[in-house]
Amino acid sequence: MRKHSVLCLTLVLLLLGTLSFQLFLMGGVRAETSSTEPTVENTNTAGSTSTVTDELEQILNAQSTQQEQHQFQAEINQLLGILINSLYSNKDIFLRELISNASDALNKIRFLSLTDSSALNAYPELEIRVWADTTNNILKIRDSGIGMTKQDLINNLGTIAKSGTKAFIEKIQKEAQTSDSALIGQFGVGFYSVFLVASKVVVTTKNNDDKQLIWTSTADNTFTIIEDPRGDTLKRGSEITIYLKDDAKDYTSATKLKELIKKYSSFIHFPIYLHEVRTETEEVPIEEEETTTTTETTTEETTTPETTEEVKVEEEKKTEETPAAPKTKKVEKTVEEWNIMNENKPLWLRSPSNITEEEYIQFYRAMTAATEDPMMWDLFSAEGQVEFKSLLYVPAKAPYNMFDFTQKTNNIKLYVKRVFITDQGEDLLPRYLNFIKGLVDSEDLPLNVSRETLQHSKLLAMIKKKLLAKAIQILHELSEQDKAERKEREEKKEESKEGEEKKEEVKLTKYEKFWKEFGKNIKLGVIEDEKQRKKLVSMLRFTTSKTNESISLDEYVARKKEKQEQIYFISGMDMKEVESSPHMEEFKTRDLEVIYMIDPLDEYMTQQVTEYQGMKIQSIAKEDVKFPDEDLEKKKKDLESLTKEFETLTSIAQMLLKEKVSKVTISNRLSSAPAVLVSSSFGVSANMARIMKAQALGQEQGGMDWMMKLRTLELNANHPIIQNMNDLLKNNVNDDSLTNSINLVYDTASLLSGYDIEEKNKFATRIIASVNSQLAYKNNLAKENKKVEEVKTEEVKPEPVEKDEL
To answer: CA-CA distance, 572 to 689, in Å (whole number)?
Structure first.
């Protein structure tokens, strides 16, 4: 807040500095009069004709004859410091501003050359050059633009908040009656950002209509202008020499300069060259003197042998052992070169019909530094109240931190007249589309004075709206193409099967690849974006009980059973859990398709989407499931009959489990399982309960216990366990064994239905007791059977016969 107050005060001082003291005094008198007028009593009596208006006229008349005119004064060095440090939050901005100014100067001379062919004679090339002197801590930026006359230097560089570019635009628009301009400057303060890093600035400039001049300033109260004693060295244009502050020495680094130019000015229309120095190694021939010296040294070192024969032998050995002297050697040399920094031209300014696929891919890789080709892209223009061009890409792979919403994304880059402004415009697209990369370029976006951030306005809101609509349209069109692609794939698959048994890997369609990477984003959009929800829901994909392929809700509805009123789904942790769920038994019997929802986001999504195309989206693990072609009257009678038969059992179970379930009933949806837990329409499913408990502080949620109790234990009247328990009650057996059996049935139903068991120790004790009881019973039965067999054996055992009798 303090920073904005200082900025506002500074701008007010600048704008009012040229106004007369008379206007200020008049305003003050009017304000004072206005403030005191309501307290004046009505004195319009018969003896008084004076009014407040008369008094005001007298004051104004006196002012017109006696007034003194004064101008506001300011300490320019302090004012400039406040202005610069209040406007800019990032020192790097200065290079963008200076290059933008250079681009404007080049555009101006280009405009003039359209009507005056001799304007470019002095220096035909239109370019920008940047180089640094690391030894003296100096940075230079030169352009071959229009240059400045002495009056331009006084008016534009000597007057804060006066934009020569803005005046030039107004002039050419007036003459040409057009608003089309590639000129960037508008506020008249961009040049002064150089003092963020400079202790002194020297501007050498040459205009076709003036001599070469030098403007110098150290950001104090004064600046100087002299005629350049060196004469005409520039031919045309301007050269800014920046004497860097001690804490800004890193701006002499070629690496740093390259990074900033590519970030902010990569799409400037004119070529930007950076002077770079590198060291390389090369092979050079060894001079004759060096070779001779080496040979002589070798000869001297051999020493003189006593005899000639020994000399010959020694020389022969040396010849065999000593390698030939090298003819070249490696030396390092310094290479200076000018490298172009903005080879990538603004692709979005061209017509889409003239851009090849390879160009789109190359531009994507250059813009994002990606190693993989994009999955899809779209270049479009928006017209109307706000005009802009945008190029959007969908990457092939999801980033590893896509759902880390604490990190600011920099996927959408914002340009104004091809000058980079910011990549922190996370509001341009909602967070569920944070994987989309691209750019937006506008001619008239509302920026703050520093051009670092956007101003919030109706134009910006319209850009966001159009950008979102286009992004959704791209993805929706891709989704619509998916069905045709899958049909074509199936046809090819059938053709390849004829006479072949070889199994080939299924080739995914483009949307299947997209869904694999970004399906969660679409689900998140369904949850968060109410306005786009209808389109996003049609893009959802699910596997079902009848297919391993992902299908849309439209496809599910198209192949539903006759008179089917609900879209059935079941949620769980994984495919095995949902496929083996007891809730699936009746649906398999009736051949009804059930959607498998195994993503945690699905649970939240179904809370927002309750119906589709007039069909209710129904969890088969909850109440109110309706089957098509069901005889409701017969079902009601059968259920009433079974309920009456098992009334005692359900009542006892209800009383025993009153803290865990809301009611116990007889089921009409089971065939093999003894029981199942069913959530009420307003309760939470087993999967949702797990998700809520897994969240931070999930078990402390106030309504959790209450919602967990909104469950029904449904008993399978046809299962032997339930029938045996009911028979025990008919025989007046109601002991601990029955209580344990009911609790065990409940615990088993919890596991089968996907719920956690609350009392795991008691469950384990019951299982152990049950196993022990069964084993003891079988052991006792085996002992009894053994005794019976022994008795039978003794009864039929023959008496022994003696040999004599034989």
So the answer is: 11
Locate 778 and state its tokens. Answer: 């079988």
User: What share of the chain in percent tops pLDDT 90?
Assistant: 43
Tokens read off for 129: 């050059």
Task: Write down the pLDDT at residue 60.
Answer: 66
Q: How far apart are CA 211 and CA 214, in angstroms?
A: 10
| 164 annotated binding-site participant | yes
Is 71 known as a binding-site position? no
- Pair (427, 546) in one structural domain: no
Q: Which residue has the higher pLDDT, 213 or 175?
A: 213
For residue 83, pLDDT beyond 90: no
Same domain? 185 vs 127: yes
Task: Count CB atoms within 10 A of the CB of residue 719.
Answer: 18
Q: Is 458 annotated as a binding residue?
A: no
Residue 163 assigned ligand-binding role: yes
Token readout for 314 is 């020694």
Reported as a single tens digit per residue, the pLDDT across 15-49 is 434 333 333 333 343 333 333 444 434 444 444 44
**703 is annotated as contributing to ligand binding:** no
Same domain, 99 and 242: yes
Q: Which of 228, 254, 272 is the last residue of a domain?
A: 272
> Is 191 flagged in the annotation as binding?
yes
Average pLDDT of span 148-173: 66
Q: Is 156 annotated as a binding residue?
A: yes
Give yes or no: residues 228 and 117 share one domain. Answer: yes
CATH number at residue 268: 3.30.565.10
Asked if 350 contacts 280 with a C-beta cutoff of 8 angstroms, the reply is no
User: Between the CA of residue 71 and those of 7, 18, 74, 87, 360, what are the distances in Å?
Assistant: 21, 7, 10, 25, 57
Distance of alpha carbon 345 from alpha carbon 69, whole angstroms: 54
Task: Check the annotation: does 597 bind a ligand.
Answer: no
Residue owning tokens 């890193």: 250
Distance between CA 15 and CA 12 in Å, rounded? 5
* pLDDT at residue 484 is higher than 80: yes
Establish whether 101 is an annotated binding residue: yes
Q: Band the pLDDT of 161: cuts 50, 70, 90.
A: very low
Asked, for residue 96, whether it belongs to a domain, the answer is: yes
Whether 369 shows a pLDDT value over 50: the answer reads yes
Residues 622 and 694 in one domain: no
Q: Is residue 75 part of a domain?
A: no
Q: Is residue 128 part of a domain?
A: yes
Confidence of residue 59 (pLDDT cuts 50, 70, 90): low
614 lies in the same domain as 757: no
- Where among 226, 253, 272 does a domain terminate? 272
What band does 317 get if pLDDT is binned at 50, 70 and 90?
low
Complete edge-to-edge strand list for the sheet that includes strand 223-227: 223-227, 213-217, 198-206, 237-244, 138-143, 128-133, 272-285, 328-340
Residue 284 labelled as part of a binding site: no
Residue 451 is labelled as binding a ligand: yes
Res. 293 pLDDT band, cuts 50 70 90: low
Question: Does residue 59 sit within a domain?
Answer: no
Scan for tokens 């959802």, then name that residue. 540
Question: Of residues 157 and 202, which shows the higher confidence score?
Answer: 202
Structural contact between residues 99 and 141, judged by C-beta atoms closer than 8 angstroms = yes
Quick one: average pLDDT of 152-180? 57
Report the amino acid identity of residue 460: L
- Indicate which CATH number applies to the domain containing 453: 3.30.230.80
- Spatial separation of the C-alpha atoms in residues 261 and 99, rounded to whole Å: 9
Whose structure tokens read 């003296």? 136
Range of the domain at 620: 541-630
What is the domain count for the chain? 4
pLDDT at 45: 42
For residue 210, pLDDT over 80 is answered with yes
For residues 129 and 255, membership in a common domain is answered with: yes
Confirm if 165 and 225 have CB atoms less than 8 A apart. no
Q: Please give the model's pTM, rounded to 2 decimal places.
A: 0.73
Q: Is 143 annotated as a binding residue?
A: yes
